[in-house]
Design brief:
The structure holds 3 protein chains of 3 kinds. By secondary structure, chain A is α/β, with parallel strands linked by helices. Chain A is built from 18 helices and 9 strands. In chain A, the strands form 2 sheets. Chain A has a 5-stranded mixed sheet, with helices on one face. Chain B has 5 domains: 6-100, Ubiquitin-like (UB roll); 134-277, Alpha-Beta Plaits; 286-350 and 463-602, 3-Layer(aba) Sandwich (Rossmann fold); 355-457, Dimethylsulfoxide Reductase, domain 2 (3-Layer(aba) Sandwich); 640-728, Barwin-like endoglucanases, CATH 2.40.40. Chain B has a 7-stranded mixed sheet with strand order 15-14-24-23-22-16-17, with helices on both faces. In chain B, strands 27-31-28-30-29-32 form a 6-stranded mixed barrel. The chains are: A alpha/beta, B alpha/beta, C alpha+beta.
Chain lengths: 441, 741, 164
Amino acid sequence: MAEQRLVVLQGADERDLTKLAEYRAIGGYDALAKARALTPQAVIDELLASNLRGRGGAFFATGRKWSFIPKPDQNPNPHYLVVNADESEPGSFKDNEILSRVPHRFIEGCLITAHAVESKHVFVYIRGEYLGPFEAVRDALEEIREDDQLLGGVTIVVHRGAGAYICGEETALLESLEGKRGQPRSKPPFPAISGLYASPTVVNNVETLATVPPIVAMGGAAYAKLGVESSTGTRVVSLSGNLVRGGNYEVAHGITLRELIYDLGGGVPDGRELKAVIPGGSSTVILTAEEIDVPYDYDALAEVGTAMGSAGVIAIDDRCCMVQLGIRVSEFYEHESCGKCTPCREGTRWMTAILRKLEAGEASDSELDLLLDVCDRINGKCLCPLGETAAMAVASYVLKFRDEFLAHLDGGCPFGSQSPLDGVVAPVNQHTQSPVAEVPA
Amino acid sequence: MSAPENVTLTIDGRVVEVPKGTGLVETAAVAGIEIPVFCYEPRLGPPVGACRMCLVEVEGIPKLQAGCTLTAQEGMVVGTGATSEKAAEGQNATLEFILVNHPLDCPVCDKGGECPLQDLTFRYGPGQTRMTFPKRTLDKPIPISPTIALDRERCILCYRCTRFSESVAEDGQLVARNRGSMSMIATFEDEPYRDLFSGNVIELCPVGALTSTQYRFEARPWEIQNVPTICGLCPVGCNISATTREGKVKRILSRNHPEVDQGWLCDKGRFAYPHLYAEDRIATPLERVRRRGFGEISWDDGLDRAEALLRGAGGRIVTALSGSETIEEAYALGRLLRVGLGAHSAVLPEATSSALDAFRAPLSSIGHAEVVVVIGEERVADRAPIVGLWIKQARRNGGDVVELAEPKLDAELEQRLRSSDRAVLIWSGRAGGGGARLAELAHSLGFDGKPGCSAFHLPATPNGRGVAEAWAAAADRDEANPEPIGLLIVSGDEAAADPAVRALAEKAEHVLAITMYHGLAVGWADLVLPATSYLERDGSFVNLEGRVQRLRRSVIPPVPDELGWISKLAARFGVEISPHASLVFAELAETVYGGEASFGDVGERAPLPARAAYEPPEPRPVAPIPPPAAAPAEHFLGTLRLLRYRPLFSGPTVERVPELRFQRPAAEVELAAADAERRQIRNGDSVTVRSESILTLRARIDRRLPPGVARIAEEHARDLGTTVEVSRSSNPFTSAGGERA
Amino acid sequence: MSSGWGTPKGFAVTFRQIFRKPITQQYPEYKRPVYPRFRGRHRLQVHENGLEKCVGCSLCAAACPADCIRVVPAENTAENRVSAGERYARIYEINLSRCIFCGYCELACPFDAITLGNEYEISEYSRDDLIYTKDMLLAPPMKTVPVADRDLYDTPIPVYRSSS
């Protein structure tokens, strides 16, 4: 029986860690004191030893990212730490939990990181719809505001986003933070060299930063013993979809998907069959029910052609129509495409159109190949990963469930309105679309 | 700056050597290889990599890269669509995606035939469509201003126009709205796009999304001729191409002289050409006939009548030049009047000088300046709009721009100017002595030995300096002011519209006017000879840098051009003058330009002559700028000095273009914030402006205006005196429209 | 040819022709039918709803090797809708004295608006009258020419007849 391994969320079940006193009582902010006693380089070395890799989805080694920041004598501009709390991936809600339940651990991580990269300015870009987490962080900041020593001259600004998925892409986030249209920048230059206001900037995910205090507290080497070799430590996994017990579970890397779904998530309700699993949020390649014995770590998932992404595991049972799932996912990316680069802007729209035709039973089999070709033509040509992951995800539905797609060719969807996707991926029209083309007077 | 090191790289198997940091698109062009682009435009700032047309394969990088965002690196191996199958497939995919929602209305579209999207689709795109669903449809065309129409269906979202608006013109009015496939270009808050440089977005647009309303459905690319000439509406002399069809000018395009205009044009230069076809244009000579007003006469009679007027004046002739004649025309007129009649007296709106030749540099040098000092009370954009863009570029490049109302530098600024290697002085105001005062200042700051430091005077007339030089070269005698004036010759529309010239005409016994328009000549001239426009002449202009640039005749004028009939008239006075501009130029070049310049050399992109040695300008009586008026006792709020200015969108040319009406200044008085506050005037209030006469205008608060000044456009200031009282209109029913209260 | 048979041989041809039917046709009383794809006088086509097919794109003028077509377009307005698109041909002239009837305009036309008909009797007393204006090109031809039965020839039905 698989069990949780609490590191980031440690203590949150027993105590109300949103209160400073409670957090202090379990040794909160001790790691900050410990880190500040070290040189910035020593903290970075600790992180390198822990082999912590970014929890936002790209899985880039955090210590290495920090070490790219030029030293103040190399670049006179101020250094910035920007926290990516714009968690908008369908299926992923771990940052919500972390910010709501352990805001002080997250703030402590911010302060340690600010020390490590010699920054005095922290910007937290939080998803606009995350009102609860925003209030938790705001209240926590209010609590420590009096304590100048704790803040150490660092200002933390919490900025609420305006509801754009693309602003979770780090450069689009920076543009949005600067007050511009949220569109990704072309890289290089990377944010570490020229980020916010053309200054060296570290952009990290919430979970990454909340993992930093435990690493400093227990030591990087001790943290590296958790999990498996390539993916050290723990991961807060969001379980959702057709499951008995959905929710966030913090587990050590290496647990299999089957254990996640059946032991922690309680399996598929009402005795139905599991049909497929999206392992890392809607942008990842889908896995069939036969493939779920794969260990939940970066390398193992990469071997089966998918990714851990932002650790949003969506279980899909046998009532669900894969074409309808494709439409929902494709519509989401069409709606959230920023419109900057051509393949993503036009390609996602095209994908949706073909999928809709398939669902209505008006498509021919050549259009199934066309869909795959369109996905292929988006892939590898976009400015940022949004369009590419969308294309890969949708292509995987076709490739892995081709029979089901073929069944749509004559007579339309065999599932019809019976396919209960409501608990799996929300439809895109929950956002109001506003195609305005008014003539100015 | 030390010379940048060179790097060697391979593109499509060809080895190229370029300076490190050169963009890959330019590097490929050096090797003769095309990397197709839509969104890439170096003049708009850093590349954005949005359109994905420039995809190339770079050895060692698994993903295709946007070529426009890359720079040349040592040992790079690049494959473009020509050799790399992957890159070709990527480019093909990009075009297929673009065309998914691009309407195929090329036969209707004005861009059809000169459209980069069309061209690149033929070369790199798919031959067939695989798209089976309806295209996105939107309302079209949307007039985003009276001069620009926007077709959002055709837009491929390269963001060139918004980037121009944001980072070149810096007006921030064009923005992208919505997201994803519903992204669309819009003006901020759907207001009309009102900017001095808005027309450039038409030329930047790689498809037919932004088109000119004037050129709309006028011609197709295979029916037109483009005549390379220059704009004659301001002293910058932007290089333009006049597109003509069937003997009519249909549009003006930029011809990019990188040292002068960098390919940008102001809206006046771009959209004012319909003045050629104004309804009140004069086609035949007009003679004053008692009772009936004016009567049309033949050219032979017109010349006879002109001869009679000239002979009758007995040498007591004054010529009011407008400063927009070609130098050849001014020279011919000078020969006729000075050699033929001994009439040496001529007036120009503004003094001219060649003193700044010692501090000459291309206008582009402003763009890299460390510090730019703008002296004067007139806005740069009103006198020489493109200079305003260069100043903005200097600011974007990190330079400091200092604006001073008067040429008084504080010690710190003086020290900065002395120590800088890249400092620029710009005189944008009256009483500059044609640059003589600025030259003295530049000399005192030690600019002589520093080629990076330059000084520019922004004259009020397009070719005042060239005209003055040509007039001076026509004969070797001093000017004498005849009293009383027997004949006043008014040359050109600007002179005819000038109140000072009109005042002079009151004193003259006879007036001979050379103008294009009825409205300007009727009522005061004895004889009117039709004039031509800068688009209809051959000749040359001297711009504010001192660059001699050539005007080419774009269309045949409806009347004989000035040089032609001046030459005929001169023959009657025994003066020989060629009717051909090239021959007149050759004659003139020997005396004025040291025999070096030839008409051919002035060429398509005129070079800038070398700097001259500094010579102290001859002392001239220069009217000083009046000091701000002290508060007189009788009115507790005090009076303000009236600052009249000639807006860019004014004058007889602009008045005849209905599309430019929206650009003309509103009936406003601009006040400094402090002055307005003291009078309890808020932005938009209706105010009464009082001196000898009374006007009601709308107030606009300008934070950059020095206190003590009320700024009113010439056309709205009318006959106000030099000092005015400004107060809030007491009568709430008085509408702010510039009527006389 | 020194055999001496040359002269009688030649006369044999002459005598043979004397007894044959002459091929002279009594034009203009008799008009010989032209082939269905004969290229004669141009016509401008209209849609069934009366709107002109021509949008004034000038592609015909671009394709014309004799440079005999002049198009001046203008914009359709709600009050004055002439063609289906945004623009229409305000002036459409073909100088038939220059036209070489190559049919390139027909090929170039993206809307099948200009077609070449079968009429070849377009002589006039004045060259000016040979400049056909839009009104003349829109109107059916005054003189008609008999056309050979289409079925006798392997003539494809043109797109503009079959699908619009």
